From TrEMBL:
GO terms for molecular function: GTP binding; GTPase activity. PANTHER family: PTHR47978. The keyword Nucleotide-binding applies. It comes from Stentor coeruleus. The keyword Endoplasmic reticulum does not apply. This is Ras-related protein Rab-28. InterPro entries: P-loop_NTPase (IPR027417), Small_GTP-bd (IPR005225), Small_GTPase (IPR001806). Keywords: Nucleotide-binding. It comes from the Eukaryota. PROSITE patterns: RAB, RAS.
Length: 242
């Protein structure tokens, strides 16, 4: 994709030192409770909210990302909140988005099945020659031992629908920044090296829990969660991106 983003000075336009940003609208779609708001908050490096509050209406925020060669991107990320698949407002929200992120909860099979319906809504908004960047995100990989969606199903769906695909945890921050970093690069036509991708990956802090008097919970065979030693992430309130 060419450098076709709307150039905008999001900061003080009087300042010569402020970089110009390529700005893109990104819409997050998915069932209630899959972690849309948590993902946005995590990306925004805000506190991970342990209490669930169904979002009313729509929230959006701007995430600035610096790509190699000092290319600055501003992703305007829209969280569709409590809107259901049947909502008449959805097409209006989706309109103009350069990227759509479909998110499901890896412990909730139905939320994965419903991605197909969310995709149909998107298809009614775009003509076939202007389909935006599409990504599918399986959230809550910190709960990998409760995984209800097999990896090959996730991969097959992503491939069939030409979607970028990620497994993340909005709770620990694992892979959250990287997925949006890669999206920003694709939208602005920047080719990332494996080094660029690796250095975008944030270190995930893991605390070791002692199970001295308890039975250890089962460990996922190949959990993608990046941890220091044993792959058990202690319940913590903060999304650890640093
Ligand atoms: P939504 O915006 O898609 O409706 P929320 O979803 O972001 O409000 O999250 C719904 C619930 O899932 C919340 O739990 C939230 O804390 C939890 N959650 C979100 N992301 C993750 C994750 O990556 N891992 C885990 N373990 N939980 C996550 P509560 O219990 O507060 O309702
Ligand atoms: Mg929400």
């Amino acid at each position: 994709m060419a450098l076709s983003g709307l150039k905008s000075n999001l900061e003080d336009s009087d300042s010569d030192s402020e970089p110009e940003f390529l700005q893109y609208k990104v819409v997050i779609l998915g069932d209630g409770t899959v972690g849309k708001t948590s993902l946005c908050m995590c990306l925004n490096e805000a506190q991970f909210q342990p209490k669930y509050k169904q979002t009313i209406g729509l929230d959006f925020f701007v995430k600035r990302i610096e790509l190699p060669n000092s290319i600055h991107v501003a992703l305007q990320i829209w969280d569709i909140g409590g809107q259901s698949i049947g909502s008449k407002m959805l097409n209006t929200y989706i309109y103009g988005a350069k990227a759509i992120v479909f998110i499901y909860d890896i412990t909730n099979y139905q939320s994965f099945v419903n991605i197909e319906e969310w995709l149909q809504v998107v298809k009614t908004t775009y003509s076939s020659n202007e389909i935006p960047h599409l990504a599918i995100i399986g959230n809550k990989i910190d709960l990998f031992h409760m995984q209800a969606v097999k990896l090959d199903k996730h991969n097959a769906f992503a491939e069939q629908n030409s979607m970028y695909s990620y497994l993340v945890s909005a709770k620990t921050g694992d892979q959250v920044f990287t997925s949006f970093y890669r999206m920003a690069a694709d939208l602005s036509g920047v080719i990332l090296t494996s080094n660029d991708i690796e250095s975008s990956q944030k270190v995930i802090k893991a605390e070791i829990i002692s199970y001295a008097n308890e039975e250890k919970p089962p460990l996922a065979k190949s959990s993608p969660v990046t941890v220091a030693q044993e792959p058990q992430v202690k319940k913590k309130k903060k999304c650890s991106i640093f």
